[in-house]
Amino acid sequence: MEETNNDLEEREEEEEFGFSRNYFLAKELGGSGKKSTHKLSDIRLVDEQELRAAASNIEPKHEKEVVALMNSYKSLYSKWVFELRCGFGLLMYGFGSKKALIEDFASTALTEYSVVVINGYLQAISIKQVVIALAEVLWDQLKNKRATTSGNLPKAQQPFNSRSMEDLLAFLDGSKAEDKDCFICVVIHNIDGPALRDSETQQYLAQIATCSCIRIVASIDHVNAPLLWDKKMVHTQFNWCWYHVPTFAPYKVEGMFFPMILAHGSTTQSAKTAAIVLQSLTPNAQSVFRVLAEYQLSHPDEEGK
């Protein structure tokens, strides 16, 4: 005899009730047992050097396929150079380190340019020192160009390290009247790196990208990296041409500069871990910890109770 709709609904309700009852029974039985005596402090953290050594011994997989993939990107080099000459910037994204790919492109296809490399994966970078370095490279180019064409050297300049950021950017952009063929290619590994991702630094990088003598080739790895820029920065200042170039290469070099959270390390690593934990808390909990921290800083001699 076939079941009616009412019979089916009643059976489904009984099954659902049975699942719920079993869930609470399991919780009740589990709570009645002995509590574990294990503590988080009992966990033995691996030494950071030991962990890095073990990670470096991991054998790469699919080497032939990865090499073939990297070689396939070489067919794009001429297109990338053309786009740079047209005033665009190149932004590489995709799974895996793009460091080797971009450096190969720079060393083989950008020989006409002076290339300045910025390692954005470093923990500390001075954006002003970057701009000073660019100005010095451009100044050397202008001097060499003048010496070979007219034999006259340009007038002496005020030392770049004593100039303001505005003056340095004006110098980089003002050189277009001097020589339209003087270009500097700025390679930025991880433009979304920890030392570059703040708003002020990104604004300066965007201004650098607008300078007539600058071309930028950069890579990103963080999934939220595009949120660093607004529409004007993307389309008008950086003027990105986006390229999906997954390499599946390990982040060996980049990873050397990041403290390992699961390893026993230095104060820097502990601070990094604490910051990650605090970011995961609710705003109210963060406020409580802020009050406690401020009190502790204002009463350094008091002992905890």
TrEMBL record:
- Gene Ontology cellular component terms for the protein in this record: nuclear origin of replication recognition complex
Q: Where in the cell is it found?
A: Nucleus
| UniProt-recorded Gene Ontology molecular function terms | DNA replication origin binding
Identify the InterPro entries for this entry.
Answer: ORC2, RecA-like_ORC2
| Keyword Oxidoreductase annotated | no
Instruction: Tell me, in one coarse class, where this protein mainly resides.
Output: nucleus
Any single Pfam family the record assigns to this protein = RecA-like_ORC2
Keywords linked to the UniProt accession: DNA replication, Nucleus
| Stated family | Belongs to the ORC2 family.
Q: What does this protein do?
A: Component of the origin recognition complex (ORC) that binds origins of replication. DNA-binding is ATP-dependent. ORC is required to assemble the pre-replication complex necessary to initiate DNA replication.
* Protein name (record): Origin recognition complex subunit 2
